[in-house]
């Protein structure tokens, strides 16, 4: 599957929130192919019936592409603080977090306590979940301890949130420790727990662990869902194990699990990765062409299809497609099956296509066009730009990009560090290769096979072996 999203298996799912119960339900979608909700405790009733005008307002949040969107929510601004319940505060805190206003949520928590109300497990889950998503696990742990002091026992949602946070930090020891503690205390893992463990294992290129967790899931008597299969298909596709992937897909069909756009796009992507572009196009026609059961194409689906079409193309043909794309961006009345407006995925796809054809000036031009459209680059975008500089070689520019990524607190991976190592290796600076490798290890990022190949090459050329 082509790596054009931060969450390669599944684009973020947006949830319209219509009721008070819905708004206090937290939705966390992994880049992975997984979503899970933390249910709120609803037991109190409102002290008065609100009018429709009082009842609804619009919250601002962001969609998968970083664009502002509005979701309908329930407002408590007209309700007196003395009338507010724990559920009301939970709802308001969730609103604040949806609007990326964590400090406001924490202020509401203090206000709740000062009013004599006792926070419940939903209150703590709301805060712990947000810190885990931000990879601030020290703060998440402190809130867990605070919750336990109130005699509130962690449930499967809390443990799953902590496991996800540790896996995001690639702290496998703490993740396994938390999972073991969960089992020791007879808190049964949910399908979401296993999906998260599998998802992060695939992201860390550890398919053996992903398959082990899948076995554990089945041994626990749980039934695989569509996200479970999407994760396994993605991991097998990444390793080029297409025959096994199709056998897994057959198992999915035998279990009567309906194919969604994630699975269909994953199947397309694994064939694109093996340069079987013609079959990827056939799969698009099979799953997405107009029919009674047509699946909806996502940005990622379109970009996998675009990769299949321009993958074997030469510079001239790629340039023609890029001109077509720029036309659709400048004139929104123009529509094309491949393109839907300016987005980071399509720009990055063209950058990578030109990079494969050694057309470095066009790589820079596409990047400049994207920035002009005020599109925020993704990690894959930066990796592509770094590769272009590494080929020159221009390791100093790669180093500046890496520093920018760190300053922006983006989640780095082995690919970024390996590109940096390659740039220094090509420039003949072997001591810098080792320095970058040590930095990667100190950051808790596990090297890949390609990382080790670059490191061995650098050591051999420097006479260290």
Automatic annotation (TrEMBL):
Pfam family for this entry, one: PPR_1
InterPro entries attached to this UniProt entry: PPR_rpt (IPR002885), TPR-like_helical_dom_sf (IPR011990)
NCBIfam families: PPR (TIGR00756)
Domain of life per record: Eukaryota
Full protein name: Pentacotripeptide-repeat region of PRORP domain-containing protein
Described purpose of this protein according to its UniProt entry: Regulates mitochondrial small subunit maturation by controlling 15S rRNA 5'-end processing. Localizes to the 5' precursor of the 15S rRNA in a position that is subsequently occupied by mS47 in the mature yeast mtSSU. Uses structure and sequence-specific RNA recognition, binding to a single-stranded region of the precursor and specifically recognizing bases -6 to -1. The exchange of Ccm1 for mS47 is coupled to the irreversible removal of precursor rRNA that is accompanied by conformational changes of the mitoribosomal proteins uS5m and mS26.
Transmembrane spans: none
Family in the record: Belongs to the CCM1 family.
Keyword Repeat: yes
Subunit structure: Binds to mitochondrial small subunit 15S rRNA.
Keywords: Repeat
Lineage start: Eukaryota, Fungi, Fungi incertae sedis, Mucoromycota, Mucoromycotina
Per-repeat ranges for PPR: 85-119, 120-154, 155-189, 225-259, 343-377, 413-447
